[in-house]
Amino acid sequence: MSQSPYLNDSDDAESLLEFERLESTLPPALKRSASSLLESLQQGGSASSSSQLNSPQPHRENHFNSNWLNSGVPSPRTPSQHNLGTRNNPKFKNALLSKLSRSENGRESSPIPVPRPKFNEDSFKPAMNTKQSSTGVLWVTERAGEYGFDSEVQNDWSNLGQGAPEHGDTVPGSFPRPKTIPVPDISKEYAPTAGIKPLREAVANYYNETYRQNKTSKYTHRNVCIVPGGRAGLTRIASIISDCYLSFFLPDYTAYAEMLSLFKNFSPIPVPLDEADNYEMHFEMIKNELIRGVSALLTSNPRNPTGRCMTPLQLKNLHDLCREKCLLIMDEFYSHYYYDDGCTGSSISSAQFVDDVNSDPVLILNGLTKAFRLPGWRICWILGPEEYINALSSAGSFLDGGSNAPFQFAAVDFLEPLKVKNEMKALQLHFKMKRDYVIGRLSKMGFKFNEKNTPNSTFYLWLNLSHLPGKLSNCLGFFHECLHEKVIVVPGFFFLINPQNLSRLEDVIWYNYVRISYGPEFDSLVLGMDGIEKILHRFGCLPYDL
Q1: Helix (H, G, I), strand (E, B) or coil at 455
Q2: CATH, range 185-423
């Protein structure tokens, strides 16, 4: 690997400084990320070594032993994994500078993205929290913006980090996206904070017809609260629960972190799942959480970022276990991206396993955002017992003021059950095709997929990088290389949700994973796969290049 004639020691030092500045934009719990990458580079040797690619990977332990479930205290990290003091060693630093700053596997030296200062430290900002850091999708798009990405302009970037599906008339068999909406006089007034009655009735009817035909207990409009987006729904829920322990499972949706950290009326308890088991939630674990006194449980099903969904039997067992003991908060925004039933338009929902809609403590979140591919409308809903819905309506009066009225009226016709099933069939066929394309391309590049890590729902891949050489095996290094190919992915460590800043929980960070979305349009997926293939080619780690 030749050195660029334009580089000198001051360039090397500046490159390391830029990397450390990138690290400084991360939330406090993730600040070890740059240190981890620097160490992996120092330990990994030449990135282009085929012997390293083919060498056996070290066993990576689950950092939480079974005793933690009963004690509530995370187990300590394996001591050999971090030795941060070596960064002060001049030889160590020089070796890192050589790998970070010089021509990198056929690409001219390029700086780690330099973040713009978030705040002007010289100005006084009374009462403002200047410690707040961007996370997840917002962080990666901010960094990509420093490289020229503009989310509002069609360009040659492939945004595989986005958390939204393609929203145009690009899905064969799908109904045309609305170009205009009516604005009746009644919609010019504030809508009720629980939503307009016609839409609440349409939601209740859809769930009854789809999931509860054989149940005597049925949802009515009183069991539905319309909310201005999924985050607003979660925020309303967080505001009405009190004096309890709330468990949630890792990895999961990054926005849970902010919501769980802002409210002090309950104690959030993170429960890391086992990487070796592809993060499957086992019922012995839930039993232990209930024994510990947990009375609320939050989870996404299907899961973000793993793309996996509970089976109907698992979902039934979860309801049977928690009924009358624990509030289940079920984030079901991806429930219609479900591929295990032959793409027939069927979906899976907790509503199927609720016995009595007014006594079973189950809150279900969903909306137009994902299934109807209308994220900009911000029309979502929560189903649950009447008393919870009344409290959620009251919370809306002081939290968000309610959802957009004209969009609510326009959404009523979308929810006719047969129309929904036809729409979901088209959706599933199209997104499964995109999933299979991405998995096919990545498989040819040497990534391994099996039944457990192939997503059976959502539009996400939880991609394991651990077999890649050097810098590429670390999610921050992989993200950096992707930026140079105009490809955006989300580093796996953002799916650590650490609302109470539990320092020992930092040891569960998924350095070797990125989340890839196949939500964008097909042309963007092709562009993204081409970009990743170029990176692996430069590093000499494509199977057909060896």
Answers
A1: coil
A2: 3.40.640.10
